[in-house]
Specification:
The chain has about 250 residues and is mainly alpha-helical. The chain has 14 helices and no strands. It is flat and about 75 Å long.
């Protein structure tokens, strides 16, 4: 027990000593940390470590998460304030996006629709965001109508996320042949694992497991070859592929 207590007593000092060496701090810190481990650790933490940590990406992410928990509707209130001062299209879109981020899709749809005025009436960006909101509301018929309007008024506009949204919308409307064509057309020019997962899910829902299997295998292979940073952003697709593999095996 005395040995364990001594180790625990020295852990902060050892951690800060390693930090001091790695960050080329003055060597007098090592003397302070090991001669006065408790006082030295506290002094080093407040003098060097905390000020430095505040400017790291992890600290910024942590700060953002804490603010989100303590004040979850701050973005909506700020966007509403800007809109009340000047109800411009820009502020209307800010408010719509703020509601969409909080999954308040009914409110978001209202402001996206309001944004489609004047020269923005055929804006592909606004129409696509509006359609995505309608999809989350499970209003697939209106979602398809908005996407058709987007295509008719912007024949040169190409968007892989929009194309995927259209294919998924057709699938939810039980227009399976059309959805199949759209998925294949999309994968001919864009090969993201998100698209493969959605197509595999569509195939499984239509009892075409043998066709879905190669796509799921490709997703898992691609994920395993990704660097760690990319895996972090694509983990949801790997997990979904694993679930779907178990479902069909």
């Amino acid at each position: 027990m005395p040995l364990l207590a001594a180790i625990l007593y020295l852990i902060p000092a050892i951690y800060f000593a390693i930090h001091a060496v790695k960050n080329q701090q003055n060597y007098y810190w090592l003397f302070i940390l090991f001669v006065f481990p408790v006082v030295g650790s506290i002094t080093y933490a407040f003098s060097v470590w905390l000020p430095e940590f505040r400017h790291t990406r992890h600290a910024n992410q942590l700060e953002s998460k804490i603010k989100l928990v303590l004040n979850p509707d701050k973005d909506i209130r700020e966007a509403q304030r800007q809109y009340d001062i000047a109800p411009t299209t820009e502020h209307c879109l800010m408010l719509a996006d703020a509601y969409a981020d909080k999954e308040r899709y009914q409110d978001a749809a209202h402001y996206f629709n309001e944004s489609l005025q004047g020269h923005n009436q055929s804006s592909p960006d606004i129409l696509l965001r509006y359609a995505d909101t309608l999809f989350h509301m499970e209003d697939y018929s209106r979602c398809k109508k908005i996407l058709d309007t987007l295509t008719e008024n912007n024949p040169g506009f190409v968007s892989a996320p929009g194309h995927l949204l259209y294919a998924r919308t057709l699938a939810n409307l039980d227009k399976n042949d059309e959805a199949d064509e759209e998925f294949k057309s999309l994968m001919a020019y864009h090969d993201r694992i998100e698209i493969k997962i959605n197509y595999a899910s569509f195939l499984i829902n239509n009892n075409r497991n043998h066709e879905a299997l190669p796509f799921l295998e490709q997703v898992l292979t691609t994920y395993n070859l990704m660097p760690k940073s990319a895996q972090r952003f694509n983990r949801q697709w790997k997990e979904k592929a694993t679930v779907l593999m178990k479902q069909i095996n």
